[in-house]
Amino acid sequence: MFNGYHFYFYPSTDVSRINQIRSRIVAKQGATITSEINAQTSHILVRPQSVNQKFYDNVLNPALKINKNITVLDSDWVSESVAGRKIMNTDGYVVTANQHVQDEIAHPVEKSGCNDNDLETVKKRRSTSYIDECNKKSKQLSEDIEFKYREASEYDDDVDRKNSQFHQTDETSEQGDLYETLSIPTSELNSVVNALEQSIADKSRNGHSNYSKTLNGLYDIVVKAKHEALRERRRSVDLKLSPENARNISYLTRASQTKWLQAVKERSDTIKLFMSVYGIGEYTANKFFSKGYRSLQDIFPFVDDNGRVSITHHSDFVERISREEVEEHFTQVKSAAAELDKDIQLYCMGSYRRGCRDCGDIDIIFTMNQGTIMKIKSKFEILLEKMFKEKLAVYTFTKGSGKWLGATQVNSKWRRMDILLVPWQELGAATLYYTGSGEFNRMMRSRAIKMNMKLNQTGLFTATKGEEPHLLESFNESKIFTILGLPWIEPSKR
């Protein structure tokens, strides 16, 4: 592809890792890479943010004295040419002096008839050539995925084409050379989504916000396509993407073969493992990982009592709980409560109320018929003491003013149980909130906001700007749906 081209990368390949990777790729395509600028050097490839007065004084001016016909291009020109498998037109990639510094340099760069307005037109044409915000930012993504996956897998273009599970076709519209149609089997979409999720998590944790935003854009495209394909029962989907993004998706489908993603997956899995321990958040989990810890045994000496109990009974806590076992725990709590006061009301919430076959933990609402919050707290203290005495409750992780987060034991296994104390008058809103799912709750809150209302676990309120909130409903769950203009939705469909 690049036969006869003589490239010099700035910063030089001696100091820039990404340029080392670029140089190897274009060298496979026939380009000659020069470690120093000489009379044969045809192009200087540079990132626009690296172009400053130092670049002109130390690189460009001396280069023009050696070869006055040398061209300075944005290094994305190489990336996009490789991704598109053809040499892109250099319009819009030429780096000119008055883009970055004043014109008072010793040897101005040849503008090829372009003025500032022309350059702005080119920039606009380039930006609008992409079909959405993700594609506008694809140059960032090409550095992050394209080159890293190339380096890790060490495939050349011929092998890529031979082994690719997808076919790419040029678009026939006027912008056909600016984006491609990538056809992906529906069965492969999950692997692409998982790879993107892991990449996003890795970039976010390491502070690469720009890459993370770009990956999120691409993630949104794929997830939307996946939902449409499943809804319409299609065997494959067609995505219109810029050439480099089409290329990146292809790399992601065989990401499990790369060393880079294996490292990402190891980190992701380890962070997830650490965060399954009670009291460990993402920051602490990353800190443990950075120190070289890879197992729960490694971090055991450095966690508090809650963490040690969580690690000791980790297999019990992470195991899904069958509906039958949830009912057994719930029945024993109800039995203990019934012996104390007939007004105590208990409701099993979360995925159990939604009819799921198994649950992650046991969520229970504790309230009393016409009871005040003070009376409810008082009765719960007695119930909790009784539960420990009967060895139903075995550990307390957290005990707040309105909740108890702990562990219960029926037979031999420890299970996580959360008991939430709810005032009688707030029962409907609390039942709605603690039933879930999270996605359903977000939908309901969004609906309320659009109607100038506010919905949370305590009730549905007016939310007119400049006015005091007014309670509309909190006791009757069904009435909350009615006020929001929605039909009753069974918990199993939430």
Automatic annotation (TrEMBL):
Q: Which Gene Ontology CC terms are recorded? A: nucleus
* Catalysed reaction equations from the record: DNA(n) + a 2'-deoxyribonucleoside 5'-triphosphate = DNA(n+1) + diphosphate
Q: Which GO terms describe its molecular function?
A: DNA binding; DNA-directed DNA polymerase activity; lyase activity; metal ion binding
User: Which Enzyme Commission number(s) are on file for it?
Assistant: 2.7.7.7
Task: Report the residue ranges that make up the BRCT domain in this protein.
Answer: 1-95
Q: Does the keyword Transferase apply?
A: yes
Q: Which Pfam family is one of this chain's hits? A: DNA_pol_lambd_f
Please list the cofactors this protein needs: Mn(2+)
Q: Which domain of life is it from?
A: Eukaryota
One GO term of the biological process aspect:
double-strand break repair via nonhomologous end joining
Which interval of the chain is the signal sequence?
none
Give the UniProt subcellular location, in the record's own words.
Nucleus
Supply the CDD domains for this chain.
Answer: BRCT (cd00027), NT_POLXc (cd00141)
Query: Which keywords appear in this protein's UniProt record, sorted alphabetically?
Result: DNA damage, DNA repair, DNA replication, DNA synthesis, DNA-directed DNA polymerase, Lyase, Nucleotidyltransferase, Nucleus, Transferase
Q: Which InterPro entries match?
A: BRCT_dom, BRCT_dom_sf, DNA-dir_DNA_pol_X, DNA_pol_B_palm_palm, DNA_pol_lambd_fingers_domain, DNA_Pol_thumb_sf, DNA_pol_X, DNA_pol_X_beta-like
The record describes the protein's role as:
DNA polymerase that functions in several pathways of DNA repair. Involved in base excision repair (BER) responsible for repair of lesions that give rise to abasic (AP) sites in DNA. Also contributes to DNA double-strand break repair by non-homologous end joining and homologous recombination. Has both template-dependent and template-independent (terminal transferase) DNA polymerase activities. Has also a 5'-deoxyribose-5-phosphate lyase (dRP lyase) activity.
Name the family. Belongs to the DNA polymerase type-X family.
Q: What is this protein called?
A: DNA polymerase
**Which organism encodes this protein?**
Starmerella bacillaris
